[in-house]
Amino acid sequence: MATPIVGTRAAVRDALRTKSGLFGFGMLAFIIATVIVIPFIAPYDVVRAWADVAAWTDNPRNAAPDWIDAFDDRKQSRNIILDWNDFNKGESNTSQNLKIIILQGRWEFPYHTFPSNYRLQIRATWASTPIQIAVDWRRPDDETVRIFEGLVTRQAPEIDVLPLTADDPRNDPQDRVRDWAVSVGADDVDSLRDVRPYVTLYAAQGGQMLDPNRASVLRGRYSLTITAIARNLTDTLEARFTSFGQVYGLAGTDHLGRDLFVGIIWGAPVALAFGTAAVFITVLSQVILGALGAYYGRRFDEVIQRATDFFIIIPVLPILILIGQLYEVTIVIILTIVILFNIVGGTTKVVRSITLQVREELYVEAARSYGASRRRILFRYIIPRTMPYTFALLSLSVPSFIFLEASLSFLGLGDPVLPTWGAIMGDASRNGALYNGLWWWIAFPASGIVFTTVAFAFLGYAFDKVLNPRLREE
Amino acid sequence: MALLDVKELSLYYRTSRGPVKAVDGISFELGEGETLAVVGESGCGKTSMASAILRVLPRNVHRYTGEVRLGGTNVMEYSNEEFRTKVRWRGISMVFQGAMNSLNPVMKVGYQVGEPLLVHLDASRDEMDEQARQALRSVRLPEYIADRYPHELSGGMKQRVVIAMALIMKPKLVILDEPTSALDVMTQANIINVLKRLKREARLSYVFITHDLALASELADRVAIMYAGKIVEIGTAEQVYRDAKHPYTRLLLSSVPLLRGIRTPESIPGTPPDLINPPKGCRFRPRCPQAFERCTEEPPLAWGDRLAACWLMEGGAA
């Protein structure tokens, strides 16, 4: 037999010398570095709002990652936001009880594709009568289109989102935009429902203006003018405009406009913490119980072995699914249940067999003869001998727990608040991501899972090579 | 009063074929500073006797009886816990057969040598380290050995480490179970010299278990010859080597090879008996060239001043 590897430090050093060990440690280091920088990129507040739909309404929905136009000479349209104080404000009092407020916002639109949507939010207060407003869209070709005319219906702090894309009792943007487009020479369309105001308003003049698929973008300087008539001098009006992009962030967005990059990097600590916590606790308990059983023997051993058989047979996933259906679970509860079902398991059996062997070794007998207590023999003589096996097992088991958590989340039975890779993929699957060509929604969380599990698998193989004498390359 | 007084000690093992009488009613005495060599063929129960004295028993014990008096107290009456704390290493320590395997591969040598101190005296780490180094010096090992792991040492070094470990608690009695059997002759001589010196300096008593009569003669004050779980002859080294009474002892002596000697070593025909069903009467009878009718009865050990379990003693023929 080759000389046994002594001590954890030596094992790590030798593991680093193997190729797979180097890869594994490197990949793990990358994941850990990510975990460390996360609070700076995306503070916990951001991720806490993951399940809150309202927190993500400024982002485009189902947007691709913004670096995709590096592979294309057309520049994809990005998000443009004119915030509350980005609008120039002018007021004039025409009489005692009439005030005109004019808000004007400008922006540059340099992109080659149309936005995916647009939105105008109004925040107003009035004393007696709702404020009447008119919204004019001014284009680089000096055309001006009135896209809204009517009353503001909500008072601050509530925000009124003007109906600018689809039919509404207050306004019919499609009709307004079509009338204007036809007046500047667009071919009319059969169905008003196909008109997308945010396309036509950004389109260069021509016959195809009303056809989202064939219209071409008019680049240049756009502006919005909101003219309001207030009945009271104390009335106020503010506006916020968003032109939603076709692309967003490093990893795109999902159906709620959530930044997938945030979800994916936060998936790393969640997966890592879940996997390692589950593995450390279960492997530890399995090793100790296996060794205890084999060392003390008889009835105790019998009980542990039968319990092990039982726990190996019962399927954990269906039970977790059942629990997930019946109760609202958090990740900590899932972790606890997973650990409970793995208190004993395959490792118990293997460690038991190792213990049965080591127990009979002469040095154990020697220790017994000089009066070492049973506990001392167990923890200083027997369990250290199972460490080589345990060490490789530790890293090889992490992936299976990560997969388990991902499967549960994928099924929608995981933690409802935290973004996990499995949960993101579950959302993607339920919203037909692949059917709609939203590849980023699947690809990034999946690569997160694969990257992490491969890192641990590499590590496991490296340790196995180092610590298993039969696999050592001498 | 003898330091160690063993009376009618028996240790039988349970097997599927029936009990194995590995140690069957052994009695002997050992004075302070005295060395008793226990010599016999492989499988005659020497190691079982050592285990029985130190109560390091396997799981399949069938019978474990007799008296072991240590300094007058019958330690066989101690509970396991009492035995562990009062006898092991404080009273009797042991060097196991095959030192190669009696060291924990994952512990540093110094820690392991000192471990009994930790177990019995609750010593501090510094104290333990200091004493371990001293013990290593006393067996002529350099101190830096304390920071090595067992696999970094040679066989002779490991053997000395094991001896150092046996001495760390300064016991009165050390059982040496084949302490040199896997070593070359030079290293054997070296270790025997270490043992001799320790005996002289610390007035240690040894029970020296070996199959090597020549080696036993180096160290022994008295010699016990074991055959099939029994002591067949016991006496001073002078008596046993010069004037052996039992035919087995004599055959054993004549089987020792001489350096460039004129006599060819003899072997004893046959094999040692089955300890599950030993022969009736004298157990050596089936192999004994001088066996006669009387030998089917169990011979007594004591004949006047000589102790040899053989009926030949009766007529003074031996």
Strand arrangement, major sheet of chain B: 6-7-8-3-9-10-12-11
Distance between the termini of chain B: 31 Å
Rg over CA atoms of chain B: 20 Å
CATH class term of the largest domain in chain B? Alpha Beta
Mean pLDDT of chain A: 86
Query: Could you say which structural class the secondary elements and strand pairing of chain B correspond to?
Result: alpha/beta
The largest sheet of chain B is:
8 strands, mixed
Largest sheet of chain A: 5 strands, antiparallel
How many helices of chain B does DSSP assign? Answer: 9
Most extensive interface, chain pair and sizes:
A-B, 23 and 28 residues
CA gyration radius of chain A, whole angstroms = 32 Å
Binned, the helix content of chain A reads: 40-55%
Question: What's the number of extended β-strand segments of chain B?
Answer: 12
**What is the average per-residue confidence, as pLDDT of chain B, rounded to a whole number?**
86
CATH fold-level topology of the largest domain in chain B: Rossmann fold
Quaternary form: heterodimer
Distance linking N and C termini of chain A: 12 Å
Please identify which CATH superfamily of the largest domain in chain B we are dealing with.
Answer: P-loop containing nucleotide triphosphate hydrolases
Shape call of chain A:
elongated
CATH architecture grouping of the largest domain in chain B: 3-Layer(aba) Sandwich
Structural class of chain A: alpha+beta
